[in-house]
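User: Hello, can you help with two protein structures?

Assistant: Certainly.
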Amino acid sequence: MAVAVPRSTPGAPIVPAFEPLEIAAERCKGCELCIRACPKHCLALDSTIVNPLGYHPIRLTDAGACTSCALCARVCPDAVFTVFAPPRSGGST
């Protein structure tokens, strides 16, 4: 079975994938409150990194699962999350 792969148009701008969260990992203390609050279970501690405070910071494990509900930002005592609304899919404004 053949699968068609869309080709990019030469000169077309490259659109980065949507990231619903920006995480200030340098301020995260790894308390895991956001992990427990996330209804989609798409946050985890990044055990491969130690931030300047000496903690393993949070990372987004599945951007596609994140609904931008902002529960992580609401419970975070260090305000490390910036939550972005998902882009609108077509339609007029």
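That covers the first. Now for the second protein you mentioned:
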Amino acid sequence: MAKDKAEVLEAAGREVSISNPGKVFFPETGQTKGDLVRYYMTVADGALRGIAGRPMALKRFVNGAAGEAFFQKRAPENRPDWIETVELSFPSGRTADEIVIRDAAQLAWIVNLGCIDLNPHPVRAEDLDHPDELRVDLDPVPGVAWEQIRRVALVTHEALTELGLIGWPKTSGSRGIHVNVRIEPRWTYPEVRRAALALARDVERRAPGLATSKWWKEERQGVFLDYNQNAKDRTVASVYSVRPTPDARVSMPLAWDQVADVEPADFTLATVPGLYARQSDPGSGIDDAVGSLESLLELAERHEAEGLGDAPWPPHYAKQAGEPPRVRPSKKRRGDDDYEGRGEGGGPPPEVAATRQRAVAAGDPEAGITGPPPWARSGWRGTKPTPTGRRRTDAPLIEIARAAHKDEAMAGLERWKARWPGAAEKLEPADVLVDSMRGRNSTWTRIRVNLRHVADGDRPPQEPLDPDYDPWAGYEGPDRSGQPERARRRS
């Protein structure tokens, strides 16, 4: 099929070419790439408020929302000279020049690359070591009603207000609610994460049974406050981002008096431009509401004095000094000392970090990370890890599917239920764990089932995965920070 003729739009005093504007990006609504670009130009002032001056990883859907996305951290080499970049370092020690958006022309340019949603870091290009935003991500476990998410958001508002901070809520555009808090850029990433953990525990105390700060899914109930979204190199879809959902849903800013009745389906690519034109932007005052983390860090000190120390980091971060065992409680077989880590600040142990810093200083953005992964080396005695970097699990938690696309994984789950109807009917919503996993350049979906409500003798065995997608196929080399690093494609 012949491609559409490119369109040229004017924005911020520049001309931006939009290639193939008639390409359908949202099959269920029929909305095109051109519609997406026009949407962002309509809400540009609001969208820029969430991304301006921040380095940004590009999440590109070159075939639209129904296609596979891939992440691009390094800015394209064939970019206009008016596209700004800044060198960002990652917890592994690697570096990359990431794009920084400051005006509507630059915004249109990245949307033309297939960026449906916008994923900025919580720092400004002028100070990459000190976040100016604390992010509260309310992530419900399966089966939690939308009403409960709204209630937890309001409890979060209450907690922030008592701590002297102003939260700015928005729908996530997916299953949850986000609350952004502008802060003074005085604290490091680990300090901001520590403050976010203290807030999560405080909300959990205020709303027992409704909210949780527990990292391990087997311990969660209700709405999880994901404190790890404040770790370095984590990004969240920003305000006015269109999400890759069938109805092109939008992450919409809200006033607090809207939260109790808000319905996320009301905000889509089709409806938001009209709302934006008719009403004031609820998030317009965020940059004037800069707060201090001192009260949250004091709360963290009180928690620590009561015996609540650090909580687990995400699996692709090096095991940190003082971090509790990074193993599911039901799988823990050894004492805490045997799980002790030596990483610092979210990165690897100091001597590893120093070696990688020297490699970067010598001009290697890969920080000297080369060679095969440990399991491919002579003398390796362990098992080859799964694509998540974690051990394979057994009953009562079994894995059902890994797929490049969520609908393929869900179809595999339905086939499993048809094979095991007796076990399937005993599952509660929270027993089906659907995880969006980050692969080399794209996300993939994993589905597991917790058989805790199925009698021992009736539990289905671990079967071959259906489907069984390998996100690392075609790659070799190390992965993980302080462990093997992210793999490279084979030549």
